[in-house]
User: Which sequence fits this backbone?
């Protein structure tokens, strides 16, 4: 692992800018699925399946589902951008080699990549929040002005998931290896996040395992700010994500240094 502060300069901003410039040229095609998917999930699960789901809390299923969507979609954006996307830039497009011929350091490169994944996460969360506000008269999923805090939550979780994916990308030797990331890490978090059903319905051992999954804490924070139910214990969720973000960031720097510096 790295000792001391990361070697980061304004080169990280230039790496972020490079990814942003690419996105500006292709955003229409890339955003088609991203734009439609939240609507499809909300309509199909919230209004469709939700008609047959009764919660002990008495709230509508779409209201229970909304915080999970605000955590899951940004997670996918960050992981795909800094997992599959980073691997393509590393191995296929040789973008990293080109960047490292400039004054930018490896730490600049990885930090810029992670910041870009964080940006994609925040953009996804913003869009989903707008969709929920548009559907507000029918769903009442956004019940508090504190919902604006969804955005800093998306930034924090986006940084953590981007760093996690970048750590894995530094170890992957083939695109097929990302099946392990998706099936062993992402999908268990997806289903055990508390976004689709209350975790209280699981056995005690499963609840304890789920607590260690970062997406659970994102869902809890989103649920609190959408309803306005802010409690001191939510600081534990913030701390969990912050510590996870720092640990995976340092891991990504160390592992990618080992990968890129021969």
Assistant:
């Amino acid at each position: 692992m790295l000792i001391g502060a990361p070697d980061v300069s304004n080169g990280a901003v230039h790496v972020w800018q490079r990814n942003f410039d690419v996105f500006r040229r292709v955003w229409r095609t890339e955003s088609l699925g991203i734009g439609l998917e939240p609507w499809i999930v909300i309509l199909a699960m919230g209004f469709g399946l939700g008609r047959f789901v009764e919660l002990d809390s008495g709230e509508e299923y779409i209201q229970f589902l909304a915080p999970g969507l605000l955590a899951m979609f940004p997670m996918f954006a960050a992981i795909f951008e800094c997992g599959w996307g980073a691997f393509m830039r590393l191995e296929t497009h040789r973008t990293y080699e080109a960047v490292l011929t400039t004054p930018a350091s490896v730490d600049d490169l990885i930090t810029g990549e992670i910041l870009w994944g964080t940006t994609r996460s925040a953009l996804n969360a913003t869009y989903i929040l707008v969709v929920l506000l548009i559907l507000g008269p029918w769903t009442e999923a956004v019940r508090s002005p504190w919902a604006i805090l969804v955005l800093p939550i998306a930034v924090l979780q986006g940084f953590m998931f981007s760093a996690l994916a970048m750590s894995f990308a530094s170890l992957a030797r083939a695109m097929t290896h990302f099946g392990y990331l998706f099936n062993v890490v992402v999908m268990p978090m997806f289903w055990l996040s508390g976004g689709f059903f209350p975790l209280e319905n699981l056995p005690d051992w499963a609840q304890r395992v789920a607590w260690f999954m970062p997406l659970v804490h994102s869902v809890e924070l989103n649920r609190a700010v959408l309803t306005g139910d802010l409690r001191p214990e939510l600081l534990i969720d913030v701390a969990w994500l912050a510590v996870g973000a720092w640990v995976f960031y340092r891991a990504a720097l160390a592992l990618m240094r080992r990968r890129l510096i021969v």
About this structure: The radius of gyration is 19 Å.
